[in-house]
Amino acid sequence: MGRTLKIYIAFLILLLITIVVIDSNSPKPIDWRPTYGVNDKIPYGMYVLDHEIGSLLKNQKIEKFNQTPYEYLEKKYDYDTLVNNYKIKGTFLNISKISNLDKQSITEICYFVSHGNNAFISSEMIPNQLLDSLNLKMDSEYKFSDSIYNWVANKKLGTQKYKIIEGVNNNYFSKVDTLNTTVLGYQNGDSTRVNFIKVNYKNGAFYLHTQPVAFTNFHLLKGNHHKYAEKVLSYIPKGNVFWSIKDQTGEVISNSPMRYILSQPALKWAWYIFLIGMLVFIFFNAKRKQRIVPIIKPLANTTVDFTKTIGNLYYQEGDHNNIIEKKIIYFLEKIRNEYLIDTHKLDDDFIKKLHLKSGKDLVIIQNVVYLINMYRKSHYLSVEADLVQINAAIEEVLN
Q1: How many structural domains is the chain composed of?
Q2: Same domain, yes or no, for 309 and 280?
């Protein structure tokens, strides 16, 4: 392991330790998400309500279910022709920021209420299908006062108004069926608006409330806000309560193998920094590392020097015939290799082929062939002049 790599690893480990220490000593930020989860202890969760609903609805049996209302209530219906009624009696309860009741569930709830039961729904947005069925209309105030008060209409429960600002919304019932609707509560911003009503529906009744934030941890623990929640819930008729907590248990589990690491802030940031560190390391080490390749000088061609040495040796010895013979051999060998011409017979045909292939002057070629043939036919010892003449003729053809 190289020294540079060790420095990178040490730096990353030190950085991770520093982040973990800082994160463990820093206060955790408050989670203000409006989850309305019964297991959430954050401000807008309903952990307190889940544990205290028994004291708010005294002497009433409360059954929670984590299914759609349709799935739950449909199983409770007795289809026997002599019965045709639900096996259970009581009040359907649902508290959520925005009601996500599907159409089948709304139809089933209406059917459940029509058989002499009740439904209590507290949500900022009531589904349009239910509003249409009950001949209701909701609206919003675009200008909302900083001083918002909520209170119930029944003066027997007290006339106090509760200042609930945090998380409150500006929705209200702008149209009701006066023949079947009773106003149970109000809110005021720029003006007084209806936010809690009872709507008679066949043999039962719907209780609709637009400020579910009153049932969250924040307001149940703040000042006397819990009294407002008590008063609103007191309108629920005595009897069994069937509380729908579908998608409010916080039990959605990720299938990712990294889910625990990513759910812990310290581990999550440690993981991200590790990935970033690895990318940086790969980036700076992507190029192949090796020692500088030394410049290797090509081997010197000593053939020329060797030839000069041998030539000088022959020249000093005065063996001109031997030198001429070797020059001729060298010349003919070069002709065979470069022009692919047969040099066995040096005649007019040879002269013509060499002239065409080499492009040399015909007279020059004729001269060198003449000198070579004359040398081979002669039987006397050559002198230095002969060597110079033949060499000059050969060089003239080769150059």
Answers
A1: 3
A2: no
Residues 213, 274: one domain? no
Q: At what angle do helices 265-284 and 3-25 cross, to 10 degrees?
A: 160
Does residue 144 register a pLDDT over 60? no
Q: If you search the block for the tokens 């959430």, which residue do you land on?
A: 40
Q: Give pLDDT tens digits for 52-104.
A: 999 999 999 999 999 999 999 999 999 988 888 999 999 999 999 999 899 99
Q: For residues 390 and 370, what is the distance between their CA atoms, to the nearest angstrom? A: 10
Alpha-carbon span 212 to 244, nearest angstrom? 14
Task: List, as one string, the DSSP characters of 222-269.
Answer: STTHHHHHHHHHTTSPSS-EEEE-TT-S-------TTHHHHHSHHHHH
Q: CA of 184: how far to CAs of 127, 144, 155, 179, 210, in Å?
A: 20, 21, 10, 15, 12
Supply the range of the domain harboring residue 12.
3-27+257-284
365 inside domain: yes
In a domain, 156, yes or no: yes
- Reported as a single tens digit per residue, the pLDDT across 172-199 is 999 999 999 999 999 987 688 999 999 9
Q: Are 115 and 204 in contact (CB under 8 A)?
A: yes
Which structure tokens are listed for 291?
A: 């020692």
Residue 378 has a pLDDT of 80
DSSP annotation of 77: E
pTM: 0.61
Phi, then psi, of 29 in degrees rounded to 5: -65, 150
Q: Edge-to-edge, what's the strand order for the sheet holding 91-95?
A: 62-65, 241-244, 91-95, 118-122, 204-209, 192-201, 181-188, 149-152, 162-163
Do 232 and 320 share a domain, yes or no? Answer: no
How far apart are alpha carbons 343 and 357 in whole angstroms?
14
CATH number of the domain to which 131 belongs? 3.40.50
The reply to whether 80 and 147 lie within a common domain is yes
Residue 353 structure tokens: 């082929």
Q: What tens digit of pLDDT does each residue of 114-126 get?
A: 999 999 999 999 9
